[in-house]
Amino acid sequence: MERRGLDYVVLNQGYVSVNGRVIEHEATGNALLTELYRNHIADWPKFFKMDTLSKAGFVASELLLKETGERRLDGEEFTSGCAIVLFGATASLCADRNYQETIRDKDNYYPSPALFVYTLPNIVTGEIAIRNHWRGETSFYVLEAPDAVQMAFHLACAFQNKTTESILAGWVDSSRNDDFQAFMTVIRREDAADTDWLAGQLKQMINILNNK
Prior knowledge:
By secondary structure, the chain is α/β, with parallel strands linked by helices.
């Protein structure tokens, strides 16, 4: 029997798809993330305080988990079995640039703690973990470009933690407020056991992202 492929979401500043199904939208750039939030999520006001990297990762994760039918934990519920491992090239560059603008001019000096919070790339994993009540591993690796083989290796290593049952994984990148790209998927322990298969799945997502 042929093995079923991984569920995935792909998005950039002008394109959104879930398992290859294009999501219609009107806005582009950062406004697209807000449109997707309002139309498909709309119950997490912290979204509006996030930087672009976190917004892109958050929206991609929400669309994906809705597609896979993951049960939302609430109240005092939490799990240590769900991990988050993301990759990107520019880290927190977008937020760094925004913060730099607040301190660049000594005559117009207004450093913003709200921006400074996001000058770390792993904040996006924290936003997703808090939303879903996940207490497993959260990691953000910086690579020069999406590399399916290297990503599959790191994901397989993450399963060395015996409590990890699944990983929300993918690529999230943003160099400017209206420039972002992401793909996201959920992998299970059995998926990561075959790193060649996993790398092949990730490569398909990378190809879609690069061609949109």
